[in-house]
Specification:
By secondary structure, the protein is of the alpha/beta class. The chain has ten helices and 20 strands. The strands form four sheets. Strands 4, 5, 6, 7, 14, 15, 16, 17 and 18 form a nine-stranded mixed sheet that branches. Strand 1, helix 1 and strand 2 form a beta-alpha-beta unit. The relative contact order is 0.21.
């Protein structure tokens, strides 16, 4: 077997993390993506590195989604569509919203969280990346006692996996951060997590990859994964007709991974759940840590003197125009929790992009048995920035023949079967 020569498809957090880890192992790496790093979905993250976070497939969440799905300003909105694949995805998602599956996925996500934070720590120590990285945790902030009770139950589950979570009353929260309104009844502080400016983190990761010899480019779309007569990966073909040879291909193109996987016969029921993000300037008081404003599912993260608001899940066919009311709902929804001049703050950045989601709530990470030399890292939903680093390390380890430090069994990319 020749020394690995790896092509990574996708320059988001998973793709660049894989390239960075491979560069430390002396592997020749090339990253191909039609979009620049600063336009990736990873840069539209809320800025929360929320290790220990519970999975999307919580018991009862699909029934709650039924109440939301027809409102264009709700946390979850399903665009009217006759797309059979989307409705199939929703049905399978509903089937996975049960207690036994929740326990299994929580165990896996908890393990991934610790391992991913170790990867992030190592990256920060080596690069001293200027991305406003702070280990201040995040807050689950609630306006109702019922929601606070629900968040306390989730925290108790995380504590069984070793995470440090603490209840905070509304008064205690306002003593820490006076920007919170009197209507807030309390919060759960997830202390093991961190915050950062995701765009600055991604730019720092790109610079470090380049400095370590990773080739990033050309900026072109990959149209096909090339295979030998025996079925082994040989490289990729690009939209401009060029071909790039490789012994291994890492497919980390987010929601755009689906057609490339299905072209090699692997079923991949990914949907793009569009999220929205705005960055505000000019507030006179900010939260001290990232916060999920629980009744609205909006995330609010201080990045320097700015406030980043992110959230919503909008499921529908790819390529539809932004829904302006969903973007505007971020400020309106946050205003019920946060004062500090939020209403009059200037919007200096707006963003919308697709989070790749699989119907069982777990990402796809690892090798594909039927396609030797192909590895996949996608489907991390809203936890891409949090879990992308350990996905990258795991795939790098597999490529060079090392054992993964985490259990990948629930994340097999081919677990949904073959096309047809």
């Amino acid at each position: 077997m020749p020394s690995p020569r790896v092509v990574v498809i996708g320059s988001g957090i998973v793709g660049l993390s894989t390239a960075w880890e491979l560069s430390h192992r002396g592997v020749e790496v090339q990253v191909i993506d039609p979009e620049p790093v600063h336009d990736q979905a990873s840069c539209g993250n809320a800025g929360m590195l929320s290790i220990g976070h519970v999975p999307l497939t919580r018991p009862g969440v699909s029934w709650r989604g039924l109440r939301w799905m027809l409102s264009r300003t709700s946390p979850l909105y399903i665009r009217p569509t006759i797309d059979r694949e989307i409705w199939s995805w929703l049905w399978h998602f509903h089937q996975h919203c049960n207690e036994p599956w929740f326990e299994r996925t929580m165990t896996s996500l908890a393990q991934q969280g610790w391992a991913s934070m170790a990867c992030i720590d190592r990256f920060m120590e080596e690069t001293a990346c200027d991305c406003l990285f702070k280990k201040v945790g995040w807050m689950a902030v609630c306006r109702t006692s019922a929601m606070l009770h629900e968040q306390a139950e989730e925290a108790a589950l995380a504590q069984r996996h070793g995470y440090d979570c603490a209840m905070i009353s509304g008064a205690e929260l306002r003593a820490l951060a006076p920007c919170y309104r009197s209507a807030v009844v309390g919060a759960v502080h997830w202390r093991d997590s961190a915050i950062c400016d995701p765009r600055a983190y991604m730019k720092g990761l790109e610079r470090s990859c380049r400095a370590r010899g990773v080739m990033i480019g050309p900026r072109v779309r990959v149209t096909r994964i090339l295979r030998s007569k025996e079925g082994r990966v040989e490289g990729v073909e690009c939209a401009d007709g060029s071909r790039v040879k490789a012994t291994h291909v890492v497919l980390a193109a987010g929601v755009w991974s689906k057609p490339l996987l299905e072209d090699v016969g692997v079923r991949c029921p990914l949907v793009g759940a569009r999220g929205y993000n705005i960055r505000l300037q000019g507030m006179h008081a900010l939260p001290v840590a990232s916060a999920v404003l629980c009744e609205t599912s909006i995330a609010a993260t201080p990045t320097g003197s700015d406030l980043r608001l992110a959230g919503t899940l909008e499921i529908g066919p790819l390529g539809k125009p932004w829904i302006r009311s969903r973007l505007e709902q971020l400020r309106k929804g946050a205003d019920a929790y946060i004062d500090g001049g939020l209403r009059d703050a200037a919007t200096v950045e707006e963003w919308a992009g697709y989070r790749p989601c699989l119907p069982d709530g777990m990402p796809a990470v690892g090798t594909v048995d039927s396609v030797p030399g192909l590895l996949v890292g996608t489907g991390h939903a809203m936890l891409g920035m949090t879990l992308g680093p350990i996905a990258g390390e795991s795939m790098a380890r597999l490529i060079v023949g090392e054992s993964s430090t985490i259990d990948l069994s629930l994340m097999r990319p081919d677990r949904f079967g073959r096309v047809g």
